Fold this protein.
Amino acid sequence: MTFSRRDFVKTSMLGAVAAGVGSRNSANALAAQGHASQNDAAKRPIIICAHNGRAYVKAAYEFLKGGGDTLDAAIRVVKGPEDDPNDDSVGLGGLPNEEGVVELDACCMHGPTRRAGSVGGVRNIKNVSMVAKAVMEHTGHVMLVGDGAERFAVAMGFPRENLLTDRSRKIWLLWKEFNSDRDWWGPGIADPHWQAPAPGSRPRAELWRERIDRLKQRAADLQIEPEFQLAAVHRVLSPPTGTIHCSVLNEKGEMSGITTTSGLAFKLPGRCGDSPIIGAGCYTDQDVGSAGATGSGEENIKVAGAHTIVENMRHGMSPQEAGLDALKRIVRNYNGDMNKLRFMDMIYYVLRKDGAYAGVSLWEGYSAGNPHAIVVHDGTSRSEIATPLLKGYSQDWPPFPPIPEDLKKDSEYLK
C-alpha cells in the first residue's frame, strides 16, 4: 500500500472535515457522492455484502425472491467464503492466531423476530455464521464464546474439523520463523506514547528488498505455490484482517444482517474484534435498517459503528450520511492525527428499510486502482465503489514497503 506526500497533504486537509471542524459545504460535498439508489427509486428485494461474497450473492438472491427468509439468504452468501479453503479471511483456511490455531467469530440479527445470536473465539467449527444463528434460535442467550460455544455447536450437530489448511499452516510457519518478534504484544496505535515509524531511507529500502527476497525463498522452500508466494510474504509482514458482512431486505420489508470472520491474522489467542459484537460488526433494526463492517475491528468497537449508523438513519440521515458520520467518529477518536489514521481502515455496508443503500470507507482503497467496493444485488449483481471519507490510501500495519514491480508481477493474489 502506498501513501505519498501529496496524499498526506490532501488527507490532512480533509481530516479537518472529518474531525468536525470543516465547513458544512465540505461535508455536503462528501454526502453528495452517493450511490444512485439514494436518489432514484429504491428496489426490493436487495442484498449488499463484502467483495468476497460476490460469487454467492446470485443464488442467495434467487432464494430470497422465492420467499426465503432474509437471514437464511444472508447465510447463503457468507457460508460460501466460510467453506472456501482458499479464502483465508473466514472459516476453513482462515489465518490462525499466533499459536497456529484458527479462531472464528460471527454474529447475526433477524429483523422479523428481533432476535440476535453471536459466537466468539470458536475453534474447530467451520460455519460459525450458522452457529450464531443456532444460539439465537435454540438458547435463551445472545452470545457464547470459546470452549462453551464449541461444545454447544457440537451438541447442535456441527462437526469438529481441522480448520488450518496446508496453505494457512505454511503462512503461519513463515510468520513464526521470520516475524514472531513483531507480534501484537505491546502498546497499540491508540497509546498516547505511540510513535509513527520514521520515513524509510534508501538503505532501509534495500534491507526490505533483501528481507522480502529471503521470505519468498523460504516460502518456496515450504512449497507455497509460486503465484502465491509474494502474497504470503505480504500476509506475514503485514497481517491482514478478514471478514465478510451481508445485509438483506426482502419485498415485504423484512431485514437481517450477519458478519463472520477469522479475525486478525496471528492475533493473541482469545482476541475478538468487532465481528461478534452486536452493534459493532453488525446491527439490524426492523424499523430502520441494517449495517455491518469490515476493517479495523478495535476501532469499530469503540464507535459501535453498526449501531451508530442505524441510529443515524433513525434520526433522518441517508445511508451514506449515516456511514460517513460513523467514520468521522473514528477520526475524532484520534483528533484527526493522520500519522495514526493511515494505519487503519474501515468499510461500512449500509441498507435502509426502503431499499436505499450505501458503501462508505475511511480511505479510498488499499492502493491506486484498487478502491474499496461493495457488492449489490437488486435484480442485477454488481460491485460499486465505496464513498471514501479521506482521500488517499491506507497503509498496512506493521508498515509494508512498496513492492518492487519485478516482484509484484509474479503474484496473482495481492490486494
